[in-house]
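Entry for the shared binder. Reason: the reviewer on the internal report wants the predicted structure included alongside the sequence.
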Amino acid sequence: MKNISPFAGQLPALADLVDIKRLISAYDSVQPDPSIPTHRIRFGTSGHRGSSFSASFNRNHILAITQTICFYRKRANITGPLFLGFDTHALSLPAFQTALKVLAANEVVTFIAQNQEYTPTPAISHAILSYNKGRTEGFADGIVITPSHNPPGEGGFKYNPPHGGPAETEITDWIQAQANEILANRLLEVLQIPFDSALKAETTKQYDFLNSYLRDLENIIDMDLIGDSKIKIGVDPMGGAGVHYWQPIAEFYKINLTVLNTKIDPCFRFMPRDWDGQIRMDPSSPYSMKSVIEEGKSFDITFACDTDHDRHGIVTKRFGLMAPNDYLSASILYLFKNRPSWSPTLEIGKTLVSSQMIDRVANILGRKVYEVPVGFKWFVNGLVEKNLGFGGEESAGATFLKKDGQTWTTDKDGIVMGLLSAEMTVKLGKDPGSVYHDLTKTIGKPSYRRIDVSADVKQREKITNLSASQISSTTLAGDKIEKILTRAPGNDAPIGGVKIETKNGWLAVRPSGTEDIYKIYGESFLGDEHLNSLIDEGQELVNEVIDT
């Protein structure tokens, strides 16, 4: 179980804030040692992440990764422009400057936001897809510089190929291996020019990410319906990359939207601390969202987005902050009933650790579920090919097709998921919390939990390579085990762990790709006591394997 910090939900003290000057100084001065595993470049489910304090995210890493991406573009014959954006984390701007120096030196045409404005992840995905639409060659790709909702002292760097979504494992494995070779070879293959020269280079061009994205919103969300209704909407950008997007959206579509927080502070001192006392811009956490939940009482619907705006948190008047799985279920029900132009064959994408409520909603709708491993990259092809109407994961990330059934983004989009909650509230006359509450009356109410357990590299490797034959028990929490999955039902891709299903619940175990932990997910339709048994017995099963 989580050991909740006594400081959870409280604003940080001055002593808790990251020293930005030291952080950026370390970015430039700390030299990673490639022989030390934690100093090497590691691409997890959302790119390379780390901190300059721990020599896991610094200038040398970004030089090596960006040069490798330039090599990859030549290898894959990607000859169009590259869209480059960054969020409000302190390490994101230095990483942006480093990347542009390399891209310009390699003569890659690079589109950056006007006035070096912050750029949300979905705006980059949208820009890539908009540019590539109808093309048969000269495709664009992108780099997103963000550690998502991670603490202020961390940085992140992610590559999105021409399909606009997170890169596949085959690509990131290649980039990781080549970049580490460059790192070990003392960056001898890296081309770079001074940042001022890179900004003025003929290959560096400005792109209006905001208006390109903003003006297309009416094709995915019924913005007129929201505007005409005048419902009161509150939004908290959490000091993130979309902080300057919300007011223009409100003004352009004439919606009654109030931006609750317009502050930009790399220390994020305005953020209540998360469950473990860390500052984390997680819109699905009741601790990080404490102030938003309180302010939400004054609005018809309130929502927030994380630092790169690919995740959402929905707050309703009656039910407060919705659990991510609950909102996904309500959204799927609404969308597939209120998008008449969508194909009747569209499927619903979910990760294998998302709620089985989604499967029950799919049964109501008569739709198939496409269940994949953790990672949004698994939804990309389905969204591009327009086989999936919706793709979502339990960590509060999702996107869906335009009203006419065309692709919107192939990366998570917290902005449209927030605006969807407003559309639902107007169209149905009740907010998403009430929609979900009504659902539970007819198809059951699950108890769901995820816990994190410390694990070293060897233990995580054992979990990754788990096989069904290693599960010795035939029952779990009093129920017969019906399925043991090590590959996802939707695409037969390896889970990187195991999922065990019974009649009344399920349990999944998988290692983290970026932290020294493994994660246990559980869901029961018999209540909290049964869920506790599922998780306890599941952990015993795991311990038997990793301790041998």
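Summary line for the report: The chain has a mean pLDDT of 95.
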